[in-house]
Amino acid sequence: MMFRRGFILFLPRLIGLLVVACCSVSIFYMLACTPKGDNQQLALPRVHSPTVKEGYEVILQEREEQHRNYITSLKKQIAQLKAELQGRTEQLKNMQNQYPDPLDIQLDHSKPEKAQANLLAFLRSQVDKAEVHSGVKLSTEYAAVPFESFTLQKVYQLETGLTRHPEEKPVRKDKRDELIEVIELAVGSLNKPDGVSKAKPRLYTASDFVEGIYRTEKNKGTLYELTFKGDAKHQFKKIVLFRPFGPVMKVKNENVNMADTLINVIVPLAKRASKFRQFMQNFREMGIQQDGRIHLTVVYFGKEQMNEVKSILENTSKSANFKNFTFIQLNEEFSRGKGLDVGARFWKGNNVVLFFCDVDIYFTAEFLNSCRLNTQPGKKVFYPVLFSQYNPSIIYGHHDSIPSLEQQLIIKKETGFWRDFGFGMTCQYRSDFINIEVKQSRIAKST
After folding, report:
1. What burial class does residue 368 get, using C-beta atoms within 10 Å of its C-beta: 0-12 exposed, 13-18 middle, 19+ buried?
2. Which of 17, 218, 234, 437 makes an SS bond possible with 259, Cβ 3.0 to 4.6 Å?
C-alpha cells in the first residue's frame, strides 16, 4: 500500500519530466534541421572559424560595390538635373530678351541686399498689374458682380430669395466666422508697425470699423474692402483683402482724407412740390447739418409748381444758412437724362463728386461717406443698390395711423426689396462723366 501510494504521488512528476524532455528534443531537432536563409548565409563567420578573415573581406567587398553603384546612380541623376536646369535657364533668358520687362530688373547675386530690393519691387509691380487690383473690362453691365455690404452687426444681402431677409445678423456660423476673420486680419494689419514713423502708432480695434463691402466671383475668389475710422474727422483707413479660395492676403492699405471732398447732388424735377418739400427736410438734416460738404443742383422742367419749389429751396437756404445750391429751369418736357447732363455740365468749379439723385430718395450722412469712399477719379464709379419700399398706406393699412417717416425706414422683408436691377442712382466724378459721355458720342457718330 505504501509503494502504490508513493508511485501514485510520483507519477505526475514523471509525466512532467517526460513532457519537458520531449519539448527540448523537438526544439533541438528544429534548430538542427532548419535550412539557412540568405541573411543567415551572409552573416559574419564565427570568431574561432579558420576562414574569419576571408569572410570579412568578401562582405566588405560586396558592401563597397553596392555603395559604388549607388554613388554612380546619384551622379547620373545630378547630371540630368543640371542639364535640365541649364536648359530652363536658357529658355528664361531667351524669353527675357524677347520680352524685356519695363522695370529692367536684374538680380545681382554679388549684392544680396540690392537683389532682394529689386525682387520686392518686381513682386509689387506684378501685384499692381493683378486683376484684383487693377480690375478687368466687362462685355456688358450684366457681367458685373455686385458687392454686398456689412457692418459689425448686420449684413445687407442682395440675393434674398423667398425666405431670406434683406438685412440680417449673420446666423450661419461659417459666414459669421468668415467676416470676423476678415475684420480681425484687417485690424492686425493696421496695427502692424510700418517702420517709418517714429511716433507711437494708434491702436485700432474692431470698434473703429465703419463698413465693409465684399463680393465673390466663382472663378477667382472673394474680394473685401474695409473702411475704418482715421486719426481725425473725415479721415479714414481703407484696406483691401483678397481670398483666392485659400488664405486671406492683403492687397492694399491706404489713408483716405475726405475733408475737402464735395458732393454735388443733382436732382431733375418736374412738379412734385410736396415730394420736394419732404426731400429738402432730409437734405437739410443729413446733407447740411450732419455732413456739410455738399452742393445741391435742381434742374426743373416746365413752369408748373416752379414758384413753390423755388420757395421751398429759398426758405431752406435762409433757415439753415445754406448757399451752396443751384436752380436751373428748362422750358421743355421732363427728361431725367437731359436734367442730369445739364446739371453736371453747369458746374464750373474743380473736379467734384456727382450724386445723381431722384426727389423720392432718402439718404443718410453715412451714405454720403460711402459715396466718397467708393468713388475714385479715372478708376471707380459707385452704383448704390436702393431699397425700394412698398406703399406705406398698404403696409400699415391695418393700423390706426401711418407711423412717422423715421419709423417707416426699416429694412426688412415685409416693407420692401432691394432694387438690384436698376442703376439710376450713381456716384462718380464729373471728369469721368464727361469723358464717358464724349466717348459714347464718338462711338455713336462712327456707327
Report:
1. buried
2. 234
Q: pLDDT tens digits for 160-182?
A: 554 556 656 665 677 788 888 89
- DSSP-assigned states of every residue in 333-354: ---HHHHHHHHHHH--SS--EE
Q: Are 311 and 279 in contact (CB under 8 A)?
A: no
150's CB contacts (< 8 A; 6+ apart) are 156, 170, 179, 211, 212, 213, 214
Which H or E run contains 253?
A: strand 249-257
Query: 288 with 294: CB under 8 angstroms?
Result: yes
Question: Residue 338: phi, psi to the nearest 5?
Answer: -65, -40
Cell of 257: 482724407
* Size of the chain, expressed as the number of residues it contains: 447
Q: Which three cell numbers stand for residue 264?
A: 454735388
- Reported as a single tens digit per residue, the pLDDT across 429-439 is 999 998 886 65
What pLDDT shows up at residue 87? 83
Closest CA to 26 of 36, 35, 18: 18
Both ends of the chain: CA-CA distance in Å? Answer: 137
Grid cell 558592401 — which residue? Answer: 63
Cell digits for 261?
Answer: 471732398
**CB pairs under 8 A, 24+ apart, for 253-260?**
253/189, 253/190, 255/230, 256/227, 256/230, 256/373, 257/230, 258/234, 258/293, 258/369, 258/372, 258/373, 259/232, 259/233, 259/234, 259/235, 259/293, 260/293
Three-state SS sequence of 178-244: HHHHHHHHHHHHHHCCCCCCCCCCCCCCHHHEEEEEEEEECCCEEEEEEEEECCCCCEEEEEEEEEC
* Res. 368 pLDDT band, cuts 50 70 90: very high
Query: How does DSSP classify residue 399?
Result: S
Give φ, ψ of 42 to 5 degrees: -90, 5
Q: Does the pLDDT value for residue 2 go beyond 50?
A: no
Check: CB of residue 296 under 8 Å from CB of residue 267. yes
> What mean pLDDT do residues 26-34 have?
62
31-46 pLDDT, tens digit each? 655 554 444 444 444 4
| Residue 182 · residue 239 · CB < 8 Å | no
The continuous run of DSSP H or E covering 355 comes out as strand 353-356
Ramachandran angles phi, psi of 86, nearest 5°: -65, -40
What count of other Cβ atoms lies within 10 Å of the Cβ of residue 70? 10
